[in-house]
Amino acid sequence: MATDNKDFFKTQTDSSRVKATIISEYFPSYCKIIGRHHVPKKFGYYDMFAGPGMYEDGGLSTPLLVAGKCANDSYLKDRVWMVFNDMMYGDTLKENFEANYPDGTFRYKPFFANRVFGEWPKIDEFLTKNTMEGFYNECPSLLFIDPFGYKHINTSVLAKFLTYWGNEVFIFVNTKRLNAAFENEMFQDDLKTIFPLTYQTIKDNKKLISGPVEERHKFIIDNLGAEFQKVLNGRVFFSAFLFREEEQPTPSHYLLHITKGAKGFDLIKQVYSRFANVERSFTTGDYVTYTFDPQTVIHADMFGDDFKQENLDALKAELLKCFAGRTLDAESLFSQHQTENMFARTHYTAALRQLYNEEKITAVIKDNKNHREKVLLIKECIITFK
């Protein structure tokens, strides 16, 4: 493992930068959403394959990006507890971290370790420890695992972590290697740990897929998300962000986000939509996912709010069918509808404004304020479908 990845942290790729930025953009907003329901004693950020925190070219990876967001926010600075583990770079990360954020920067002192995730029992004990006090979790936590390859993804342990209110998981999955592992008998025990309930079914059905390689990768990642739902025996929201190879338009990795909360599902789609630079249809085909292609990054407006009209037309048609003849506030409309698809909040805003301009809906904002826009995704905006 060390030999295969000894040059990994020399130069930061566009994909690595986007992956790290997605996590660091998501975490502060996640904490603020949790805090609206209950302000816990602390928020946890756990990174089990943290790396050194910095590339040799100066690029910052996830630990230092997350720390920077928290250090510059007085609310988070006093409430976030960061736990970092990396079997190879744990000591280097601690040095890089403390050079930027010396002891005392955060109320809760960050913890650094260099254990082998998946093979050190105390880590599993830590992740599955009950932090609930009554109905609320007093340390709701975001767990991020970014293993080399795909080993050490223990779905049962991660699912137990998710049982506690507010906890969420990001997994950076090397679907290229995971896809190949199904064809190698040496790795079947690893696959049974990843898919404890459906291993044989997935293996058998994967053999029937004769389409492009992306279809097999998407089949695997969708079933990994669904595995959590089966293990937990309840509603789980999972969404994946596809990273293509650096030099060819085929899948390399997926960033899989798993939560039990609809608010988390809403938030991750907002973040994903800002970093996807390949527009995909969210209503047709088998590849309904946000996608980043490093070959097109130079030409992409990664932060734009313009979407293919195809997607907006599809969403508009769904809304007209679902809410025909009804009157309701825009926030309730969004909350009811967004849980069943990959459209982000910005898609809904654009679609509703087009419907208003097309005179297919009426909208009245009842907050006694002057607004430039006629449709806002807020409770005070009352929409009537004609």
Task: Please give the structural blueprint.
Layout: H1 14-37, E1 43-47, H2 62-71, H3 74-77, E2 80-85, H4 90-100, E3 111-113, H5 121-127, E4 132-133, E5 136-137, E6 141-145, H6 155-162, E7 168-173, H7 175-181, H8 188-194, H9 199-206, H10 213-232, E8 237-244, E9 251-259, H11 262-275, E10 290-292, H12 309-322, E11 327-329, H13 330-337, H14 345-357, E12 361-365, E13 381-385
Parallel strand pairs: 1-2, 1-6, 2-3, 6-7, 8-10
Antiparallel strand pairs: 4-5, 7-9, 8-9, 11-13, 12-13
What does this protein look like?
The protein is an alpha/beta fold. It folds into two domains: 14-299, Rossmann fold (3-Layer(aba) Sandwich); 309-385, Orthogonal Bundle (Arc Repressor Mutant, subunit A). The protein is 40% helix and 16% strand. It is built from 14 helices and 13 strands. The protein has helices at residues 14-37, 62-71, 74-77, 90-100, 121-127, 155-162, 175-181, 188-194, 199-206, 213-232, 262-275, 309-322, 330-337, 345-357, and strands at 43-47, 80-85, 111-113, 132-133, 136-137, 141-145, 168-173, 237-244, 251-259, 290-292, 327-329, 361-365, 381-385. The strands form three sheets. An eight-stranded mixed beta sheet has the order 3-2-1-6-7-9-8-10, with helices on both faces. Helix 1 packs antiparallel against helix 11, helix 6 (155-162) crosses helix 10 (213-232) and helix 7 (175-181) crosses helix 10. It is globular. The N and C termini lie far apart (61 Å). The relative contact order is 0.09.
